Amino acid sequence: MKALKVASVCRKFNQSPNKIFTLAASVLASVALAGNVQSANASPIKINYTQLATSTQVLQAKPVIAQVPTHLSTISAQTQPWNLIPIVIVGGFVLFVPLLFGGLVVIGEREVGIVVKKFALSGKGLPASRLIALNGEAGLQADTLAPGWYWGYFPWQFAVKKESVVMVPQGEIALIVAADGASIPPERILGKIVECDNYQDARKFLTHGGEKGRQIGFLTAGTYRINTALFKVITAATATQHGMTYEQLQVHQIPADKVGIITTLDGSPIAAGEIAGRSTGGHDNFQNGQKFLDAGGQRGLQEQVLLSGSWNLNPWLVNVQKVPMTEIPIGYVGVVISFVGKEHEDVSGAAFTHGSLVRQGHKGVWVEPLYPGKHPLNTEVMKVELVPTTNIVLNFTDRITGQHGYDSNLTALKLLSFDGFSFDLEIFQIIHIGASDAPKVISRLGSMQNVIDQVLRPIVGNYFRNSAQEYTILDFLTARSDRQVEASEYVKSALRAYDVQAVDSLIGLITPPEELMHTLTARKIAEEQKKTYEVQQMAQTQRQQLVRETALAEIQQELVKSEQGVKIAELNSNSRIQEATGEAESIKLKAIGEAEGIRAMGNAKAETYLAGVQALGENGYTAMQMMQIVGDRNVRLIPDILVGGGSGGNANGLVDGLLSMILWNQTSSKQNSTTNGINQPIYPRVPANMALPKHNGHAQINIELPTEKVEQ
């Protein structure tokens, strides 16, 4: 029956949320069960002490109600009320005496006890500058209570506040603010790190010189029992409550293609004339802030950078800016101009008087360029000037701009010729800079754009302006190839002094005055037409040759026949020649014979004539010959009409002669006609000794000629 009463009391205590009553109920149940109280109406009960002991554990962060083994609740409720009175009395004594007079405090395994001492028996109090008691003074105590049972913390003298342990998840950090400790020196803004078991031992923190305020140390992932009376812990979950962001309390991740540029917020000041803090070692890439400060680390921009990886960094000490790595493309080198580093030490040599070069790690232009690839450079304290090592074309024209952009300010040259004409000239200049010469070029001129604007443009422009004034515009146009060769040699020589190689100078579009363009165009068209005609002539010649060859091939048979015919003709000709030669010989012989006959006849006639002359005399023989000729030829010696005149001046004889002539003409015209059918009239002949009538001393003849047309 007593056991049933104990179980009933335990159930009543289990309904209370107070841990003290829960503990008391557990103790009371233990005492009752330890006496082996059995009821006469109930069977013996076996107590599982392991379960009972487990039920008395109250070590969780939240209140846990002790539980009595469930088999006790199965006991019959047939219990008498007065049987509980002794149990209650004994349980109350056991419960309240330790609590009131023993000062029992129970701390769970995930809790930490913060002790506040209400008063000290010695009457000693805390100094005005202190918040945490170290020597038993009244107030917040430095020492905390770990999990377990503690006696002597009487409620009238002590108050114990149970706080949950601090948990920092993976990938995060937690910051610490100390409420007590020494003052931070004016030259620093963060409290130094002291040996205090990651701020879990408040006494060590205070006794070893820990400083109040924001701490340079921080908590990484893990579980910590922190005296929250002394330390305020800021985690990512509570960051916004303290004016911070969630990202600031994350572990810093630097990607593989980026670098972290560091700016520190604490340390010694940067020396005058410097723009970044010098590199110091031993601080594990700024993860150990105290070692950074102990090594003389300076606040502000840092030379050192963070490479890819994960880094535990205190955002109150380190600010990280993630920037891409410096990439040097193929076909370029990077000339580094460093604004930080060791003191300047020129290594360019005495021959190079236009600048200075330094080794890597020194201030100035580095003598060794960066080759193609990605380089983890601090672009806040270094400048990288890209220099092309391949041939680049610089276009002196508005029409074309290279992808490199160096010629964006270049325009076509405006030139004046010798004969006073103004014209525009496009130039395409090809240059090359060697990798080893790139630092010299940058040291001398500062940048690639300065090379173009301050060196190349004046040299090229000045040469062509001078050259144009030595020639007329037509001479300049027609001899542009010569001008191009001269320009190339001149520019090569001029740029060599600046460690720049001029590959070639090319003349582009020339824009002369409009009136000259017509002349040049016509001339060029004529030249091209001439070439066209020559080509056409060649084509015609080849076509003729083709036709000839084709015809020859087609008449090859006729050609053979002709050749044979020629041979036959030659033979016939030779035959005819032989025949003609024979005929000529025959005619010759015949002529010789006839000539001999004529000569013989002539000789005979001559002999006859000589014989006649000798016989008749020369005059007689001649007269006889003439008479013979007259007779043979029928020559008339007496005229058909004879007109004569009397001595008495009578003109009738003339009239009669004329009438006779007219009649004779009319008769003879019908009988005598020429071969062409035209009548030939016979005019009267007047004898020389004819006497004519005179009038005033002159002879007059009146002749009436016929007017009739003679029929043809």
UniProtKB/TrEMBL annotation:
Residues 1-34 form the signal peptide. The chain crosses the membrane at residues 84-108. InterPro entries: Band_7, UCP035261. Residues 327-542 form the Band domain. Keywords: Membrane, Signal, Transmembrane, Transmembrane helix. Pfam families: Band_7. This is Band 7 protein. The lineage of its organism: Bacteria, Bacillati, Cyanobacteriota, Cyanophyceae, Nostocales.
